[in-house]
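re the bet — no i am not wrong, look at it urself. input seq straight from the record:
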Amino acid sequence: MSKVLFVGLDVHADTIAVAVAESGGEIHTHGVIPNRLESIRKLVGKLGLVKQLKGVMRPDPEGMKPWTKKHLECIKTNVHFEQSTLEATLQHYLHEVEHIAERILKLEKAIDDAVKQSPPQIRAVIEALQALRGVAQTTAASIVS
C-alpha cells in the first residue's frame, strides 16, 4: 500500500504553520517554519519519500478574513477534490454551513420580534445594555432574560 500524506499549510507573510495527516487518520503538527523556499524543501525532505504528497492550503486572497461570506464563496469556487468521497464531504460541509447560517438568521429574527413585543421597561434595559461597547441586541436580550 502506498503511503499518502495530507499536508496542511497555513501560509502567512513570514511563516507557514504545518500539520500532516497520514492516510490512517493520525495527525501530527510540524510546527511553524519560515516562509522561504529552502524551508519548504527541508520540510519535504523531513516528510520522507512518499509516492503521493497532497497539499491542502486555505485559499485566502490578500485581505480576506476567514469565515465571512466572501471566504465561503472563495472555498466554493476554489476548493475541489478529485476523490468523490472527499468532494461529497466538502459539499456536505458547505451545506451545513449554509443551514446553520439560515438558522442563525431565523433565531435573530425571533429575538428581534420578542424584543419588540416585550414591555417598555424590558426594552429600556435592553437598549441601555446595547449602549455598552460590544453588546448587540441578541446579547442584551439574553442578559435580560
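see?? The chain has a mean pLDDT of 83. told u. also The CA atoms of residues 13 and 106 lie 39 Å apart. so pay up
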